[in-house]
Each structure stands twice: as structure tokens, then as C-alpha cells.
Specification:
It is built from 19 helices and 13 strands. Helix 4 runs parallel beside helix 5, helix 15 packs across helix 18 and helix 16 packs antiparallel against helix 17. It is globular.
């Protein structure tokens, strides 16, 4: 491959820089054209590192009328009129939210900075945030006599920065929420509405009952709108169109089979689905990172640990194996109250769960981990948080042993992992079958091997199923009993029946946990 490829825009969220410096841009302007032509008030929630800031930057330059920047893209040849509008653009990543006073001050500073750039006199601080914001809007409109575009990135940063950190931090989140509620309420006042061309607000989460949505109730929520399910993320079609040369380069340099590499990339980074429409997208940050470094690793998780989620899971004693497969109605995705946050919708909005299936008749969604990167990284991080241990190489060794069929060696390594959990972190009321089951699940998931829990069959429920390239491991857990009883149950209820005649070896495993020893006390392995 002799042709020089464009650099991939890893972590670059400015479309002007991407175009002018020759980075690759995945053309999303057809969807953006539909967006700006079809309405005025929008909200979009997506996980971090999914391109929200780049979308805001693209909208900014379109409404600035910079047509030449988009030459070769869909919108350039469309009938869009390229009228220039004044823009109020706020990025809450760069606005202090330590407390409501600092948030208030920094919003005012950011707005006055916009006025300065437009060579307009600043607004004095001796006003409420609503009056201050309204005055900024009026001054900009009076100068240009044109309707204004409002672009807000990461609107929820002042709230989620304080979640999962204790009661005092939660009070700050609530006070910040009240301030934002008043601030965004300005956008629906009749005097402002008549001066508005377009409003676009992004964030990670949708706090339907506690933030902008109670005041700014004319927002169209695009989060689960099937028309825009692929406005962010990378589809299979876009990979074929734009990224095939990068995959071929990866294969050439690492001497890999391209078909196998594509499948590996799909397993690691694809799988995000945001609506009832069965369209799945790749995480762009992770995919670009893998193609640039020619290495499949866990990139997305390393850019930010979901501390608030892990703290909530620990606090609410969530049984994580159940999150392998969940069912929910759409209303569950937007019922947030700061005083009693639900983990499931937060995991969906943050990208740790995604839609795996949808029943059109019952309107029920099936949820699960989007891909191997998320499941492996999230469960590993959660295990270390719960166990109090520091990270080491044992998880990876467990995965290798299981893949190679050396299950007894894998279990021995797991016993050594269990033995390292500090005694003080195991309360007496925690030490039961569910605790050991969850920790076993987290260790296997973090090792990179596929494990599924609580699988229903015609005669019962399989505690855990591990599937590798060559084998099925069917596992039954017992607590203060025996591994023989576990094996006997597998056989009596014929848990193995659905997996026969699939061309893979079937291995039955009975594991008994001892609450006294706080570890695996005995296990039995049989090849069917």
C-alpha cells in the first residue's frame, strides 16, 4: 500500500482543524442537513468520546456560513442557503462547577467573552442569571438583527461531576441544577423565542426531572430518535466507504487476515444501538485509536473512569450479572431524580449498556453490554473497586487458561485472587452465594472471556455459561455444599442440552464456595 492515508482525528473535535489540516472526516452532514432543515430545538445525549463536541463544532461552522469548509461533503452540494447567524456557544467542560457560586460566575464570564468577541459592551454582574443571559441575547440580536443560534456542549457536567461522591457533593449537584434550570428557562421566553434560529444541547445524561427539561420543554429529544440513530458513531457502511484502506494497512503491517481483523474490531468496538431501529455503530474514539496504533486494546475506558456509576453500584448493592441481559420500557431511560438515581438508565446513557433488541409489539427493549471493550473494562474496574485490590496480570492469565481449555489451572488462579481480597472489605452479610457468583462473573468478564449468567432453560436456570472458540463451560455454583451436588444438578436438569451438536466440546463445572474460608473450597470438572 503506497498511497498515504489521511491522519485519523483522534481526540480532535474542531471540524475546521480536521479539514484544514487534512484529517479524515466521516461525513455526517446529510443527517445534520436534515436536522437544521426540520426543526429548531434539539437535545442529544451520547456517551463520552462519541463525537458530540465535533457535532457542535460542525453546526457552529455551518451557521457561520463557512460553505467552502464543507467542499466535497453532502451539505456543500445541497440546497442549504448558508445564511450566517450570530452564535452563543457554551462548552461546560471549560466552565467551573465546583459550587453554584463559581458556576454562576463562570457562565457570566463565558457570555461576556462572547460579547467581547462580537465587539459588544459587556453586561454588568448585578443581575440575576436569567436577566443577565436575556440581556446578552438582546445585545447580540440588536447588533446583527438576525436570529441567534444557541449551541451548548456537555450541559450536564455541573451535575454529574458531583454524583456518587457523598451527600455534600449531591447538595452541590442539586444547587447547580437549580441554577441551570433558571439559566435554560430563558430560552423559552417569548422575547427570546422570536430571536432564535436554532438550539442544540448535548450531554451524557438526561435528567428529565431535575434540569433543563422541566423549563425548556419544547426540546426535541434525539437520544432515542431512530431518524438520527447514526448521527454519531461509525456505521459498517462508513467503515467500508472510508476506513477500508486503514484496515488493510493494519493487516499488511501486522500480517493479519483482514476478515478476522474486521470481526475482532466489530467485537471490541461496535454494538452501540440508540433506538428501536436496528442500526449499530462503533465507538469512533476506540476504532480510530486501534487503526492508528495497529493494536486492539481498551481505549475508551482509559480516558475516564466512571466513578459516579461505580459508587452508585456499590452503594445500591447492584447484582451486576443481571446486567448481562435486561429488559426495559422506554420510559425507564429518562426518569432521573438526584435523590434516588437509578443505575440502569445512567448506564445506558453513559454507554455501559446499549440496546440489544426491541420487541415492536410489547415496546420492550433488551439491554446489555455493547461490546467486549466495555464489558471487559467495566467489570475489571468494578472488581478492583469492590475488592480493594490493586491491578495485576492474573485476570489476563485466567482468560488465556480458559481459552486453552486449562480450566483447572484457571480456577486455581481464581482461588489465589479470592484469597487476596482484604478480610475487612467482606462484611458478614455480604458473604453468600450471590457475592461469590458476582465476583466470579467479574473476574471472568475482566479476563476477556465471554461469560453469561442466569440463562433460562426448559428445566431451570444455568448459573453461568462461558463460551470460547472451541468449548462451552456450563457452571453451577453452590455455597457451603459441594461441587458434586452442583455437577449432579447440571446433569439432572440437562443444562447442556441446548449446546449439543454445535461442534464444540461441552465441559461441566461444579463450584462450591465456603463462607468460612471466603473462597472456592472445592470444584469438579467433567467433559460431557
Amino acid at each position: 500500500m503506497n498511497k498515504k492515508l489521511k491522519n485519523l482525528p483522534i481526540g480532535i473535535s474542531d471540524i475546521e482543524r480536521i479539514v484544514n489540516e487534512g484529517y479524515l472526516y466521516i461525513d455526517k452532514t446529510e443527517r445534520i442537513y436534515e436536522l437544521i432543515s426540520g426543526g429548531m430545538y434539539y437535545f442529544l445525549s451520547r456517551p463520552r468520546r462519541f463525537g458530540k463536541s465535533l457535532l457542535v463544532s460542525t453546526l457552529y461552522n455551518i451557521f457561520r456560513g463557512k460553505k467552502e469548509l464543507f467542499k466535497g461533503l453532502y451539505i456543500y452540494d445541497s440546497d442549504y442557503e448558508w445564511e450566517e447567524h450570530p452564535i452563543i456557544r457554551l462548552d461546560f467542560n471549560g466552565i467551573s462547577n465546583t459550587n453554584p457560586e463559581m458556576l454562576n460566575d463562570d457562565i457570566r464570564i463565558a457570555l461576556n467573552r462572547i460579547l467581547k468577541q462580537e465587539e459588544i459592551e459587556p453586561v454588568l454582574d448585578n443581575k440575576s442569571i436569567q436577566t443577565f443571559f436575556t440581556e446578552v441575547i438582546i445585545r447580540i440580536f440588536e447588533k446583527y438583527k438576525k436570529s441567534i443560534v444557541f449551541l451548548v456542549d456537555e450541559y450536564d457536567k455541573p451535575i454529574i461531576s458531583h454524583i456518587g461522591k457523598g451527600k455534600e457533593e449531591l447538595k452541590i449537584a442539586d444547587k447547580n441544577r437549580e441554577l441551570l434550570k433558571d439559566f435554560y428557562g430563558v430560552l423559552k421566553e417569548i422575547d427570546v423565542v422570536t430571536k432564535t434560529r436554532f438550539v442544540f444541547i448535548t450531554g451524557i445524561t438526561k435528567f428529565s426531572k431535575v434540569s433543563i427539561f422541566s423549563e425548556l420543554n419544547n426540546l426535541t429529544d434525539l437520544t432515542m430518535d431512530k431518524r438520527y440513530c447514526d448521527i454519531l458513531g461509525i456505521t459498517e457502511e462508513e467503515i467500508e466507504r472510508d476506513l477500508t484502506p486503514y484496515i488493510e494497512r493494519f493487516c499488511d503491517e501486522e500480517n493479519l487476515n483482514c476478515k478476522e481483523l474486521k470481526e475482532e474490531l466489530r467485537n471490541y468496538y461496535n454494538g452501540y444501538r440508540f433506538s428501536s431501529k436496528d442500526v449499530r455503530v462503533y465507538n469512533p474514539f476506540s476504532l480510530f485509536s486501534a487503526l492508528e496504533k495497529r493494536s486492539i486494546e481498551n481505549y475508551w475506558f482509559e480516558t475516564g473512569t466512571p466513578t459516579f456509576l461505580i459508587n452508585l453500584i456499590k452503594k445500591q448493592n447492584i447484582y451486576i450479572p443481571e446486567y448481562e441481559t435486561l429488559e426495559a420500557r422506554e420510559s425507564l431511560f429518562s426518569t432521573y431524580e438526584l435523590s434516588k438515581l437509578s443505575v440502569l438508565p445512567l448506564m445506558f446513557q453513559s454507554g455501559y449498556l446499549t440496546i440489544k433488541g426491541y420487541d415492536n409489539r410489547s415496546k420492550v427493549y433488551e439491554l446489555g453490554y455493547p461490546n467486549k471493550e466495555v464489558k471487559e473494562s467495566f467489570t475489571e474496574s468494578l472488581y478492583y473497586e469492590i475488592s480493594g485490590l490493586t491491578r495485576d496480570t492474573k485476570f489476563a492469565k485466567v482468560g488465556v487458561k480458559i481459552e486453552d481449555g486449562e480450566i483447572e489451572e484457571a480456577i486455581e488462579i481464581m482461588k489465589s485472587i479470592f484469597s487476596e481480597i482484604p478480610y475487612t472489605l467482606m462484611r458478614e452479610d455480604m458473604i453468600n452465594e450471590f457475592y461469590f457468583h458476582m465476583m466470579f462473573y467479574l473476574i471472568i468478564s475482566a479476563s476477556g472471556v465471554g461469560i453469561t449468567s442466569e440463562i433460562l432453560t426448559a428445566k431451570g436456570r444455568i448459573d453461568a455459561l462461558i463460551e470460547t472458540r472451541d468449548r462451552y463451560y456450563i457452571i453451577e455454583f453452590k455455597c457451603n455444599q459441594s461441587s458434586d451436588m452442583a455437577i449432579q444438578q447440571i446433569k439432572e436438569k440437562k443444562y447442556y442440552e441446548p449446546y449439543k451438536n454445535r461442534g464444540k466440546e461441552i465441559i461441566l463445572i461444579g463450584i462450591n464456595f465456603s463462607t468460612k474460608d471466603r473462597n472456592i473450597s472445592d470444584y469438579k470438572v467433567e467433559v460431557l
